[in-house]
Amino acid sequence: MGLELLHFLTTDKLRLPGLLYKPDKKTKVVAIYLHGNGTASVVYSPFMNILGKKLTENGISFFPFNNRGAHLVKSLKKIQNGVEERVVYGTAYELIKECILDIDAAINLLITKGFNKFFLIGESTGANKIVVYQNYKQKNPVSRYVLLSGGDDTGLYYKEYGDKLFKKVLNQCKEMIKKGKGTNLVPKYISSYPMSYQSIYDTINPEGDYNIFPFNNDMNKLNLSKKPLFSEFAKMKKPTLVIYGDKDEYCYGDVKKCVSLLQASVSKKRNFTFKIVPGADHGFTGKEEELAKNIVEWLT
Question: Where are the alpha helices (H) located in the chain, listed in sequence order?
Fold first, then answer.
């Protein structure tokens, strides 16, 4: 197995890093990995080497990369007309729809490396991003999707805040964005870690792109959203593997119920495969080998 550090520019000229795992025998097939948000980074995840080894042993290259949402706050380089400047990104400032710019750039880079068949694997928020990407770019070169532990951040914030504060924060974020202060950081009663008004609003808005897996809304009939629940997920037409751990701490104590809601939303479709990994938490801690095996077996 070979390993190469690559840097590439997104279409809006952000410089991002990625690791390309290559099998000994040349291949034109590659799996791209999207990490979650918060403190996430592919560099700090031991799962990357585990999954990279399994994939390359089966003739598939692997490209995990740090997108603009890596880390809470991260200084990135932006290059315009040969001039380099520093811009601040990370989870604190990212908008989920910007994943399209990052994914397209990764695919374009890999095309220059000779790849022509693409799989997309997303974990936590990375799973949400895959659905967002597919929703906006239905004609894309990806053949198969793997969604790991897709998250209901909107519902989790609603549970944490309560109805009154949730609605207050939504309105406050909208007002700050209208005033041109969307990149200002919110006070600590809204978030104990650094988050901008625009990113909090993007995350908790029930009508927004982030709200892909509205488990809390459906389970408790909260009526937070006017758009049909799981509508973007249900529109996916390509082969899609969905995996959760049965101890996922962000599934409201009932992983089977959450998965059943997803299954019900696509009950008449045959392009979906669902798996629950016994004993696994949200990050599949201690179950990485089993997870990698499930992914590779399905992809091959």
Answer: 47-57, 99-112, 125-136, 153-161, 163-178, 197-204, 215-219, 231-234, 255-265, 288-299
DSSP three-state, residue 51: helix
The residues of the chain that CATH labels 3.40.50.1820 are 2-69+96-151+213-299
User: Which CATH code fits 2-69+96-151+213-299?
Assistant: 3.40.50.1820
pLDDT tens figures, 46-60: 899 999 999 999 999
- Give the confidence band of 86 by pLDDT, cuts at 50, 70, 90: confident
Crossing angle of helices 163-178 and 197-204, rounded to 10°: 130
Q: How far apart are CA 40 and CA 222, in angstroms?
A: 30
Place of tokens 């909107």: 154
How far apart, in Å, are the Cα atoms of 188 and each of 73, 183, 195, 199?
16, 15, 9, 15
Quote the pTM value: 0.95
